[in-house]
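PROTEIN FOLDING TASK:
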Amino acid sequence: MSDLDDLTRLPDDFDGQVRLFPLPSLVLFPHAVQPLHIFEPRYCEMLSDALATDELIAMATLTDHVSGAIGQPPIAPTVCLGRIVSHVACDDDRHNILLVGIKRAQIATEIDAKRCFRIAKSNVLDDLYPPTGKATRRQLRAELLDAFGEVIPSTKSAKQELAELLTGSMGLGPITDIIAHTLPLPIPMKLDLLKEYNVDQRAEKLMGFLKSGAVALGLSKTGATGSSDANSETAGADDTPGGIRFPPPFSVN
């Protein structure tokens, strides 16, 4: 079993119950790594609970975020289960973590667990590789990587990461997820890709988005996570001429 398989495998006793970390402009994908800066007390408690048990957090995307609204704001029905692979506690009750996406999941129902953070019951969505697409999958992978190479910044680190994807043995599913996470696609497009567990259809959708001109690097000051917070911390990200950070920056909650 590869390191990637080990990293993205759920615990044997996983029962579908997940801690929800909802943010308004972030969609995490399996196989992608997301830095997060955590400081709100409820999410610090969520982090402490995760670190003490299974190290899992489900990243959810708020679909109708209104600051100061009463009640639980709605979230997209598809989330990404993530595993904490790095944690640094700061002196002021803040935390920096690295979360690697491991599985898609569909929210079945939220649970009133009497905690300050949200908890839900979920159903895992494993990648589906239809037998009918086997003959064309290698070509689709090559075309997707070529299209990705056309839109990424021409920085040394970006080109190096692309070269590693081109020469590596990573399958179409993980490659599609990493590209979808990295690029500054509109949030609805990212959510559309996240909910698609059919790998061939997901890759074809992403190709369609790339060909449609949905990726406009250099035209926005928004990072790949959708965060435009000028105070966001970064994790060794390159500044591109248009203000896009590649790889994505820290997300601040």
